[in-house]
Amino acid sequence: MSEDLVIKYNTLSAKKKELEKELDELKKVFHIYFDNLVGPNEKGEVTVNNYKLQRQIRRSEKFNDEKTVHRLTELNMTDLIHHVPKPDEEKVKSALTLGLIKEEDLEGCLIKSASQAIVVKTLK
Q: What start-end ranges are recorded for coiled-coil regions in this protein (predicted)?
């Protein structure tokens, strides 16, 4: 591991943050332009010399879980409700702490994960 590599990483990371900030600012300008040109949440396209700038709109729909379950229950259509049993993690941890169940009883049930991150800090 060399100091040059750490310095290069730190420099590139700072440049990346600057570039992402600039890109976000440009995107805001483009969205304002398209909002005025075609309206909010509408796709649009403009050609500037040899470049074509497009705004795409991705739409999605999702049922509100709580309201939909309530409404389906009111309509007596409970067969349209998907019941998913899930462990109550807080109660399971409490039961482990109180000794009501042992860790061995739940062997293979606990999913452990880890994520990696690189952080460089300048020391003074």
A: 2-36
Residue-wise pLDDT for 41-51, tens only, equals 999 999 999 99
- 7 and 51 in a single domain? The answer is yes
- Strand 51-55 and strand 44-48: the pairing is antiparallel
Q: Is the pLDDT of residue 91 over 90?
A: yes
Q: Which domain holds residue 43?
A: 3-55
Look at residue 121 in the predicted model and tell me its pLDDT.
79
In a domain, 9, yes or no: yes
79 and 43 housed in the same domain: no
Same domain? 15 vs 46? yes
| Domain assignment of residue 118, yes or no | no
Residue 118 has pLDDT above 80, yes or no: no
Integer angstrom CA distances of residue 50 from 53, 85, 95 = 10, 56, 66
Q: Compute the CA torsion angle 102, 103, 105, 111 (nearest 10 deg).
A: 150
Identify whether the C-beta of residue 120 lies closer than 8 Å to the C-beta of residue 13.
yes
Q: What are phi and psi of 44, to 5 degrees?
A: -155, 170
